[in-house]
Amino acid sequence: MRGVNKYFGTHHVLKDIDLDVHKGEVVIVIGPSGSGKSTLCRSINRLETIDSGEIRIDGVLLPEEGKALAKLRSDVGMVFQAFNLFAHKTVLENVTLAPIKVHKLSKKDAEKRAMELLTRVGVADHANKLPAQLSGGQQQRVAIARSLAMDPKLILLDEPTSALDPEMINEVLDVMIGLARSGMTMVVVTHEMGFAKKAADRVVFMSDGAIVEQSPPDQFFSAPKSDRAKDFLSKIL
Ligand code: ADP
Ligand code: MG
């Protein structure tokens, strides 16, 4: 991202954002509520348009529309705070739908791959259930499997554990840690310091629409540079 600005009306929500995420890197985005973290993520797969600046993936500007936009959405997976599964489709169908439709996989191949992914996130036993029959933690793991099924170049996870009951948070974080260790490129909005310390290469701290500082996790949590980061950490720790 280079010089990215975004307004909602007169409200300036992304301010001159410059951000590089390298292949295989795990970047945590942290900051107060309303600081622009979700808007940043959403603009990377063009769920929001930006008003100025550039966003490139593998050197290519984000497409505006059409087939190229559909391709972008399959290259950039997104996992939201609310699980966003298709309520009337089974777990297996949730994971096979896009690969069949967008990647033109046969049903058989899509199901084979989906079962591998559901096994990897620990919910293969629930493949034929509807999302509502699963716990929140299980649903969020299905959402991760669904985004992996598109073989994305990058996965954006926006507060993936913040809607979960405490006992379910670790099962989702463990899947995310495994994903990070497998070399997946990830941008994760999270305040889970355990995850940040175990899996993140870099912490990006946002405040009031701007990136205020970027540091390795141990440095950020033990010795934040800016007063705004110090103030924020004193509230969450
Ligand atoms: P965060 O994820 O860090 O909590 P957001 O990116 O959701 O922050 O929001 C940044 C700012 O933009 C907030 O002030 C929020 O109220 C505002 N905002 C977000 N989405 C919209 C929208 N669709 N329309 C108007 N304002 C919005
Ligand atoms: Mg948010």
Automatic annotation (TrEMBL):
Primary localisation category: membrane
Key word Cytoplasm present: no
UniProt cross-references to Gene3D superfamilies, sorted A to Z: P-loop containing nucleotide triphosphate hydrolases
Superkingdom in the source lineage: Bacteria
Catalytic activities: a polar amino acid(out) + ATP + H2O = a polar amino acid(in) + ADP + phosphate + H(+)
One GO location term (cellular component): plasma membrane
Any Pfam family matching the protein: ABC_tran
Topology of the protein relative to the lipid bilayer: Peripheral membrane protein
PROSITE patterns: ABC_TRANSPORTER_1, ABC_TRANSPORTER_2
Domain ABC transporter: 1-233
Record GO terms (molecular function): ATP binding; ATP hydrolysis activity; ATPase-coupled polar amino acid-transporter activity
Subcellular location: Cell membrane
EC number: 7.4.2.1
Sorted UniProt keywords: Amino-acid transport, ATP-binding, Cell membrane, Membrane, Nucleotide-binding, Transport
Keyword presence, Membrane: yes
Family: Belongs to the ABC transporter superfamily.
Protein name: ABC-type polar-amino-acid transporter
Recorded name of the encoding gene: gluA
